[in-house]
Amino acid sequence: MMSGGPSDATHRKRRRRRGPKGSGVDGPSIPRAVTTNGAGPEEEEVVEGKAMELDAGMSAAEVGGVVGSHLSETRFDQCPVSPLSLKAIKDAGYEKMTQVQEATLPIILQGEDVLAKAKTGTGKTVAFLLPAIELLSTLPRSPSINLLVICPTRELANQVAAEARKLLKYHRSLGVQVVIGGTKLPQEQRSMQSNPCQILVATPGRLKDHLENTPGFPNRIKGVKVLVLDEADRLLDMGFRRDIEKIIAFIPKERQTLLFSATVPEEVRQISHVAMKRGYKFINTVKEGDEETHSQVSQMYMVAPLDLHFSILYNVLKKHITEDADYKVIVFCTTAMVTKLVAEVLFQLKLNIREIHSRKSQSARTKVSDEFRKSKGLILVSSDVSARGVDYPDVTLVIQVGLPADREQYIHRLGRTGRKGKDGLGLLLLAPWETYFLNSVQDLSVSQAVVPTIDSSIQTGVKDALGRVETKSKESAYQAWLGYYNSNKAISRDKSRLVRLAEEFSQSMGLAIPPAIPKLILRKMGLNNVPGLRSV
Ligand SMILES: Nc1ncnc2c1ncn2[C@@H]1O[C@H](COP(=O)(O)OP(=O)(O)OP(=O)(O)O)[C@@H](O)[C@H]1O
């Protein structure tokens, strides 16, 4: 077991394990479950035992275990958990606790604020729900909300609520409700009034709506005893931070706060006081020197000019489908409209695809998400709405096309495969000018794969498919692509280069000239009067 005082975690030299970059795994095939870091399991440090909880605040508690195993040796029935919860846990098929559950349960039950970091797919949801439910079950019945869970996406909120319902199976006096954007506010208001639940799972925007527009809601939320920020780093980054601060202002200070994520960058530790008491515990179940990604997931990257990306994507998918009849793939794209375009191209290529992103109606998103959860033999083309938290079992391959927003997003997207200790594959497809991103993941075992030879039938197939996709979709994708890369500091610094790259993207869709963009949008992007861009 490793231990250390406050400075230990930061000062101890990290044992970086680099992949054999440029090893050039041959052909388009992505080898399955290969340990790409060159370190055999015998080189891993096997750390026995339970979590060691250290100092408050900036300290780290680290636990380890058998490599690749997300489960601990502790059974739920060995813990101080109520018989009602135990019965539900048994029905759910859980017997042993995962590492993060074992590490955090006693500390949360003691009433501490906890910031917890644990790899993707290792049961963080149960880790915060179970002790919170234990606490709630001791409270007198009231119409107050006692547990508030905030999630960055609607899919994740629905999933957290589903897990809560499993655990509440025998707690007849406790209920859960979800409030998310994209659904009818009055409907949510009515159901809250007719059946006030003690547990509320919400996305930030909709929660703010209720605080401002639902009579009695601010009072109900004053009953919050436990606040959970799921995917804490995402919720505390600049995109959500102001909403979260506003929401927290409505919640009593005397509460317990739990922040969970697979990634906790240093900045998040520094600003976690936004939500947590001084003296909170930081529980890190990713042991020192270990990677934040799973060793049983093979990570590859491929570098090729943009005009080959559709063909490479098609080629890799076809090969994967041939090799694995139970294939289940997620293709992540940079923006909603680029996602739509890629989905349309792959659909034209007769692949079995579904599409999910923020421009789809919530009912369509829920339908696709439910279908993908249950299915095999399916490819989900997705924007970052599926990047975090969503638990689709048995995903065989995750492909990321173009730059991920940052290192954290790369890790979370990859984490849709290799869940619960299973094998998985990841491929990052970059253009040559995007390879600077690899610096930010150099401590992860990401190996270079050789670009496959694209035969003429693939090329022709892709060209024909692109020809059948509506021009409107291409125009929207071009505009979205430009917006996405323009918001990337490293790329937007040189505007004429940005315009050139956008033109390459436009050509890769088979367009002879880049589409014109409404003046207002160009102005919003700060790109008006940039030579090479056409406006309408
Ligand atoms: N003790 C357990 N034993 C077996 N399965 C479990 C256990 N706890 C949770 N699970 C299951 O493990 C899966 C992954 O859990 P969960 O989605 O909470 O992971 P996560 O760590 O939050 O992942 P992410 O970082 O991607 O959000 C779920 O299907 C969940 O039902």
From TrEMBL:
Residue intervals of the Helicase C-terminal domain: 316-466
Position of sequence motif Q motif: 74-102
One Pfam family here: Helicase_C
Keywords assigned: ATP-binding, Helicase, Hydrolase, Nucleotide-binding, RNA-binding
SUPFAM superfamilies: P-loop containing nucleoside triphosphate hydrolases
Gene Ontology molecular functions: ATP binding; hydrolase activity; RNA binding; RNA helicase activity
Annotated EC: 3.6.4.13
Helicase ATP-binding domain segment(s): 105-282
Reaction it catalyzes: ATP + H2O = ADP + phosphate + H(+)
Chain segments carrying region Disordered: 1-44
DEAD-box RNA helicase Q domain segment(s): 74-102
EC main group: hydrolase
SMART domains reported for this sequence: DEXDc, HELICc
Domain commentary: The Q motif is unique to and characteristic of the DEAD box family of RNA helicases and controls ATP binding and hydrolysis.
Name by which UniProt lists this protein: ATP-dependent RNA helicase
Organism of origin: Oryza sativa subsp. indica (Rice)
Lineage: Eukaryota, Viridiplantae, Streptophyta, Embryophyta, Tracheophyta
